[in-house]
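Section 5: illustrative case.
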């Protein structure tokens, strides 16, 4: 019997987070002042990013969104996908479905510039960013 294979790359091998995914934390931890350490899933198949803030339709950063408002949820780090055939899967926190309509999964083939892996939301309830366990999970597909 052949060994089991996974669709997702193990993110702790080599320099996949920095070289292929291009993950870069933007804001230091407010308590320690150091860059946060990545939060991995149990099988190291994903990295989880906390929520930083919301951006309104006008581009204004806020920590609380109001119902009937269109916002983008911005995580604490930026990415720039590199490395040839790799793809990046961006999965939103399922808890966000309680607050409104959103784009749940996004598959990125290539990035020419560094960007935030944002989640677009049309809020039906007020949302406080500090109440979220995390914003997105990032998977690397070879």
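Designed sequence:
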């Amino acid at each position: 019997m052949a060994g089991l294979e996974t669709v997702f790359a193990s993110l702790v091998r080599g320099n996949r987070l920095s070289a292929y995914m291009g993950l870069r934390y933007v804001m230091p931890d407010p308590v320690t002042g150091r860059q946060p350490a990545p939060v991995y899933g149990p099988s190291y198949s994903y990295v989880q990013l906390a929520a930083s803030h919301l951006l309104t339709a006008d581009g204004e950063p806020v920590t609380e969104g109001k119902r009937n408002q269109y916002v983008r949820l911005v995580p604490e780090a930026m990415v720039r996908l590199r490395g040839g055939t790799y793809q990046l899967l961006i999965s939103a926190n399922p808890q966000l479905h309680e607050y409104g309509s959103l784009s749940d999964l996004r598959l990125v083939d290539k990035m020419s510039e560094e960007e935030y892996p944002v989640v677009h939301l049309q809020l039906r309830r007020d949302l406080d960013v500090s109440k979220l366990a995390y914003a997105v999970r990032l998977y690397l597909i070879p």
